[in-house]
Write a structure and sequence with these properties.
This protein is mainly α and about 180 residues long. It has helices at about 5-15, 20-45, 60-65, 90-100, 115-120, 125-135, 150-160.
Length: about 180
């Protein structure tokens, strides 16, 4: 083996995969950036175990309280005590609004004086009788038979006055005499 051959074999054994300065710069930059990125992602993964997902309020105290709130509420009332009547607005919101708010099944809309004009023209007594007994698609007492006639009267006055009438508020009935 000649000296030249030996020198060529020696030169080939020590060649580097990095042949240009550009490759050297890229390798040095990646040698710092890749480990730092991996460390950052690992730290973020470990810390995010206690975080709620972005835009989620499922674990807020208010959301938890709402989820575990009771479905129904029981209110104890003294049966021998005086009856507490609902106002016309309360009756409207609980019973009448389901049809009269949107005008369902031909019901005159609350606050629409034109659609209530014919009803108001018949007078308070006729309107009250229709509300208690039912008329057309409207069931008796708006579908709530537990309503007192006085509460229905209040609702009639509330609906009519909200649509242009000037009916006086009905007088509350006298309390029943205590049983002996």
């Amino acid at each position: 083996m000649s000296n030249t051959q030996h020198h060529e074999e020696h030169a080939e054994e020590h060649t580097s995969p990095i042949k240009t300065p550009k490759q050297l710069i890229v390798t040095v930059v990646l040698a710092f950036v890749v480990p730092i990125t991996i460390i950052f992602l690992l730290v973020n993964m470990v810390v995010s175990g206690n975080q709620v997902g972005a835009g989620s309020d499922a674990l807020t105290p208010e959301a938890i309280a709402k989820r575990i709130a009771p479905v129904a509420k029981l209110e104890l009332v003294d049966a021998s005590g005086p009856k507490v009547y609902k106002t016309g607005e309360q009756v409207y919101n609980s019973v009448c609004a389901s049809c009269h708010k949107a005008g369902v099944a031909g019901a005159p809309k609350f606050g629409d004086a034109a659609s209530w004009a014919t009803q108001i023209g018949t007078g308070y007594d006729t309107m009250l009788a229709n509300a208690i007994k039912g008329k057309n698609a409207m069931p008796a007492k708006g579908g709530n038979p537990s309503l007192d006639d006085f509460e229905v009267a209040r609702a009639v006055v509330y609906l009519a006055n909200g649509s242009g009438a000037k009916f006086p508020e009905p007088a509350e009935p006298a309390p029943a005499a205590p049983a002996k």
